[in-house]
UniProtKB/TrEMBL annotation, chain A:
It comes from Sphingomonas echinoides. Gene3D superfamilies: 3.40.47.10. PANTHER family: ACETYL-COA C-ACETYLTRANSFERASE, NON-SPECIFIC LIPID-TRANSFER PROTEIN-LIKE 2. Residues 260-403 form the Thiolase C-terminal domain. This is Thiolase family protein. Coiled coil: none annotated.
Automatic annotation (TrEMBL), chain B:
Residues 11-46 form the ChsH2 rubredoxin-like zinc ribbon domain. PANTHER family: BLR3430 PROTEIN (PTHR34075). Residues 48-111 form the ChsH2 C-terminal OB-fold domain. This is OB-fold domain-containing protein. It comes from Sphingomonas echinoides. It holds the Pfam family zf-ChsH2. The lineage of its organism: Bacteria, Pseudomonadati, Pseudomonadota, Alphaproteobacteria, Sphingomonadales.
Length: 406, 128
């Protein structure tokens, strides 16, 4: 039985926080693009999508990059105040960080600021330069962030090995085959082929290709490991009252959220094939009154196939232990039972560091605003489940989003 | 990282051929990884208990590419999460089979600590 959480703001309340616009530029390898330039670009795109100008924003919330410490420590959130011409106008600028689940916590933070009256309109933005960064440096960075220095870094652990450990246990517990695991990646590629911003929009992928690719960290093949990408996304949140005043006739509200931090060190996770998802889902459904059957689509963190199938099972979106087979049967495909990761996810749209989850969230909001390109748009969708996780899958974060009209 | 008593104590144990588990002298609970205060009772009166060394392999992977800086030459190597019979768990390395591979390992197998005195991590192999 889930513990009681406070009721969330009711729909229609003036201080109900809503998403009103999203912005994104293509993910992939773009050595000629630049960090601040891309942040500026997506900020302006998101504001335009919301029918707003920079002056409509009072709070800037930055989702951190992982490509380099200098850009991280440089108070870039305040630099964006300058880049957008908001000197003296902006009330606050800050950064939120929880690794891959940062987007979920950024939404919670922005929503809380809006609901409590600390902010009117919040611009959340992210840019990552992983695709153009030095690969060896990034591999080393990925063996340090989220891995305890004194206990696990000394073993030579890095993120593909973390993915390998989770996948191994998941396959053992569920009896999923290598072909079934690979099929998750194939589903994501089918979606990426429909997304003009996806890194692999032009390239098909088959189970055979995946299984023929080099073994990286057993049982993970090279084509099952996330491609490091450059990318940038942004979104705008404001109050329902402000959205109405501005004449916006469609927006996306938060019906509820739930979360569970189950570990920091992967060596301390006591249930590698389940993680924190059942608890996070129970908390989110309890707050919103939703069940898994209410979702028209799901956007679930997918740095490895097993990360997604574990989340899908914990969220109740497919039968327990059947996640990989559920994907293999085409249930998550375009035109399938429940569209999953319609942007192609981290595995096929590109892993943009902390922003991979943000891109999944932005796609969910875009779908609910009915602004995705055809034929990717899920027709008439009204409700989306967003699932995020950070570090070594240390947490499970759930946002339940619904479309608001009028 | 400057060594702290909990890091040094654990590593001294490994160098002596022992796998040490942190034990709270106040509530008697075992803590892994070692902590600066007991997560069960917040006491900082912490000592050590020698582990029996036996446990269950919760998961295992063989890293074959992308060794982090300093580990490039060691590739391939196997990492495993072991739940010790004492109830606590940790990540360590798995000793290779005779052919230099790790095909004999699978989840839920019984494994045991194998001293590797020059390492700062626990090394495990198949239980007899």
């Amino acid at each position: 039985m889930a513990e009681q959480w406070p009721s969330y703001v009711d729909a229609g309340q003036p201080n109900d926080p809503v998403f009103v616009g999203v912005g994104e530029i293509p993910s992939g390898r773009y050595p000629d693009r630049n960090f601040i330039g891309d942040l500026t670009k997506v900020a302006i795109l998101a504001l335009k999508d919301a029918g707003m100008a920079p002056k409509d924003v009072d709070t800037i919330l930055l989702i951190p990059n992982l490509h380099g410490f200098a850009d991280q420590a440089d108070l870039v959130f305040s630099r964006m105040v300058e880049e957008l011409g908001l000197n003296r106008h902006a009330k606050a600028s800050l950064m939120i960080h929880s690794g891959g689940s940062t987007s979920d916590n950024a939404v919670r933070s922005a929503a809380g600021l809006i609901t409590a009256g600390h902010a009117k309109t919040v611009l959340v933005l992210h840019c990552e330069r992983w695709g153009s960064a030095n690969l060896a440096e990034m591999v080393t960075a990925l063996s340090k962030n989220g891995i305890p220095q004194e206990w696990e870094q000394v073993t030579g652990l890095q993120f593909n090995a973390v993915g390998g450990l989770i996948t191994q246990r998941y396959m053992h517990d569920t009896g999923s085959t290598a072909e079934e695991m690979a099929s998750v990646c194939v589903t994501l590629r089918k979606w990426a082929r429909l997304n003009p911003n996806a890194m692999f929009k032009d390239k098909d992928l088959t189970v055979e290709q995946i299984l023929a690719s080099k073994m990286i960290s057993d049982p993970l093949h090279a084509l099952e490991c996330p491609p490091l990408a450059d990318g940038a996304v942004a979104f705008v949140m404001t109050s329902a009252e402000n959205a109405r005043k501005r004449g916006l006739t469609e927006s996306v509200r938060i019906a509820g959220s739930g979360g569970c931090v189950s570990h920091y060190s992967i060596g301390q996770e006591t249930n590698l094939s389940v993680l924190g998802w059942p608890l996070a889902a129970e908390r989110a459904y309890a707050q919103s009154g939703w069940g898994p059957e209410d979702a028209d689509l799901a956007q679930v963190y997918d740095s490895y196939a097993a990360v997604t199938t574990i989340a899908m099972e914990g969220l109740g979106l497919c039968p327990k232990g059947e996640g990989a087979r559920w994907f293999a049967a085409g249930n998550g495909d375009p035109g399938g039972k429940l569209p999953v990761n319609t942007n192609g996810g981290l595995l096929s749209a590109g892993h943009t560091g902390v922003g991979g989850g943000t891109a999944l969230l932005v796609e969910g909001v875009r779908q609910l605003l009915h602004r995705a390109e055809q034929p990717r748009q899920v027709e008439g969708c009204r409700r989306a489940i967003i699932g995020g996780t950070g570090g070594t899958y240390m947490d499970a974060q759930v946002l339940l989003l619904e479309r608001v009209e009028g | 990282m400057a060594n702290s008593p909990i890091i040094q104590g654990f590593r001294d144990g490994l160098a002596a051929g022992d796998l040490l588990l942190q034990k709270c002298n106040s509530c008697q609970q075992l803590n892994m990884y070692p902590r600066y205060a007991c997560p069960h009772c917040q006491s900082d009166d912490l000592g050590w208990q020698k582990a029996a060394g036996t446990g269950t392999l919760m998961s295992v992977t063989v890293l074959r590419a992308g060794g982090p800086e300093g580990f490039e030459q060691e590739i391939p190597y196997a990492l495993g999460i072991v739940k010790l019979d004492e109830g606590v768990q940790l990540l360590g390395r798995m000793a290779p089979d005779e052919d230099g591979e790790w095909a004999s390992y699978a989840c839920d197998q019984r494994v045991t600590f194998q001293p590797a005195r020059d390492k700062t991590y626990a090394n495990f192999g198949h239980a007899e």
